[in-house]
Write the structure tokens for this entry.
Amino acid sequence: MKQDNNIPYKIYLDEQEMPKQWYNVRADMKNKPAPLLNPETHQPMTAEELEEVFCKELVQQELDDTNPYIDIPQEIRDFYKMYRPAPLVRAYCLEEKLQTPAKIYYKFEGNNTSGSHKLNSAIAQAYYAKQQGLKGVTTETGAGQWGTALSMACSYFDLDCQVYMVKCSYEQKPFRREVMRTYGAKVTPSPSMTTEVGKKILAEHPGTTGSLGCAISEAVEQATTHEGYRYVLGSVLNQVLLHQSIIGLETKAALDKYGVKADIIIGCAGGGSNLGGLISPFMGEKLRGEADYKFIAVEPASCPSLTRGKYAYDFCDTGKVCPLQKMYTLGSGFIPSANHAGGLRYHGMSSVLSQLFDDGLMEARSVEQTEVFAAAEQFARIEGILPAPESSHAIKVAIDEAMKCKETGEEKTIVFGLTGTGYFDMYAYESFHDGKMKDYIPTDEELAASLAGLPKMD
Amino acid sequence: MKQDNNIPYKIYLDEQEMPKQWYNVRADMKNKPAPLLNPETHQPMTAEELEEVFCKELVQQELDDTNPYIDIPQEIRDFYKMYRPAPLVRAYCLEEKLQTPAKIYYKFEGNNTSGSHKLNSAIAQAYYAKQQGLKGVTTETGAGQWGTALSMACSYFDLDCQVYMVKCSYEQKPFRREVMRTYGAKVTPSPSMTTEVGKKILAEHPGTTGSLGCAISEAVEQATTHEGYRYVLGSVLNQVLLHQSIIGLETKAALDKYGVKADIIIGCAGGGSNLGGLISPFMGEKLRGEADYKFIAVEPASCPSLTRGKYAYDFCDTGKVCPLQKMYTLGSGFIPSANHAGGLRYHGMSSVLSQLFDDGLMEARSVEQTEVFAAAEQFARIEGILPAPESSHAIKVAIDEAMKCKETGEEKTIVFGLTGTGYFDMYAYESFHDGKMKDYIPTDEELAASLAGLPKMD
């Protein structure tokens, strides 16, 4: 295997090279992301209002669009040391197999028990909840990565953790549920009879297998009706992208250490937590005019919020109990098909990424799941890591871009985010191997119908 | 969190610090492990005889008890770079939680898709098979870690891989099977109708759910009756311990880098691949009189080959097609209980470790599975890694030793092998959480009965 000069297969930063601050990309954005609105008054949510749902310090982070750097508390940095730095891997084997002149790197976030990058924000949110003296937190989980991450974080800080898990995932992924249980979390299939909104949805749709939007409504209600609890969320929010900037900061530090400049940066995008975190510091350079990069958000063709959605204020949840958020959305009533990338099955996209995309600072591409799993299997065999279906969206487009380089002969440097592992997604792989996996693309009529449900703004 | 001077949470060797040679502990043993015997003549197996079953180069390694160092071919070192070096982790969080003066380190081998250390030998065996121009290899797998590792290795070198998986595991662990399939392996539940020995066993025991010994017989028959195939094994053999010495060599290099001297080294022991690999270079120092260490082999009370077995020549497999091996054994007819640590459910122990144990150079301890899972859950919550049931045997004894230090006030340095992750063992965790897990200790009568089946030697 030919290795470039001094560049190892895997770049691990030393402990003292790890970031001590998160980077807040909003500080460098000329067009700031639009504020959250009160769903009744349509006025920007105040800190006081938000603090009924979220932890106090997290509300500050949510609203802060001026400070570029925010210190990472020592306790969180200690926890990060348990599973970080994540390696930046040079995909030498993949390059050789593709016979491409492109240099391919991936930031691997799957080397922890939650199996994904979600732990980066989970530990931060648990820490601030503990600091505030709360008893516990509530949340929802779809594929289960976020719920697992939060369970681990709460266990570390000895906080109660209540997870509403979308019912179909709860039933299809008993092992995910069991991992959360190992970390002491209470996992409830959603919709459930434990909340008013859950009861209402069950009464209206008795046989429903649930949705992320519905589980969010239940978790928010559970938090706001119980003393000492707050709601936490694993994606979409500004605070989450802030915490996830650790991914991009480490990636940039690792590249800088070896004098490598990225040309194309690729990430899968569901709510935007991974992509936003990965690109943040690079986007900062672009916004400040210091460097240029091509950013590509990859989403499933079955849930194409950036590529086919509308940039508008919308509800974040089915029960419409959350603030309104301006984002690229398919409409909160959009029901995504049973795509196996559960983590990308959300109707909206982070406000930060939505604004950057709207400003033409980022591209978006949608891919179908059978081609994604073909790329996943190819990658597993060549690079030895079994990727999560979500992450494999980025793999697919990274390979596409590397093959373009093969045609043109360009030696571009491609960096993509490998957010997690697929150990709990073997049903999906089985369906792919057995040739039973189908693609699904919503029709224009279906999208128009769900977009018709957007809230009427003044 | 208080950190010792300059010692990070995780020690990663640089790429150029990774071992370039394996260490062969047999070279330093005064009492060499006894040779494999032909089951019919009871004469030592010749290289020619062994080459009918194993790859040529691997036979040389199997028989070599004089060369202390053997070069790792560049192709294998390249593959090692994809997932190694494995981190040596300082268990700061566990130490704090236990309030022990002991310094605890663990070598974590679970950061690869096969989920364990097995890949270290799988890639070596696949490499030599490829070098010899073979079409493929056959093997057996119980818990599935070895089968997964071999699938990955064969996929990398484009070799056919046929895995006989113990039927009960095949049915209970469909996801393991699916991972092997992702890597292109052919997985057959054992006993099967694809071999004569399988047909015979099925005729005698129509409802059997299989055993490791039976799957070995099938895999050996399959290899020896097909042109261009050889049999490979994931544990017990000398060659496997040789390849696994990479674990101990990296561990020693990492400790040396920070000037740390281990006092106690602990590993779980089924066939001995992990323990043998971990302790090899340290044992070498002890054998040469350069340093002293306390080594502890930890085995399940349900399958206690070292602590309650007999040191004698025995069959390695149920079908009695393999050479005889002198080892601590419970008898090849011993039927271990349905302990959840599938990887520790073998009736015999590596010849190397058996001889070292017999010479008093190593201790052994047996533990029951409910206490093992309690330690596993404790560890998962504190150190963030969900351990495999096998690995958790070592965790249990490491915690015991750390608690002894707490009593005595001794600041001992404890190193243990964390061989893998438990993502595919959630049924076992569920059984533990639900209070359904049972312990099982064979009676003296049961052991006497199975030991009565040892072959009569001259």
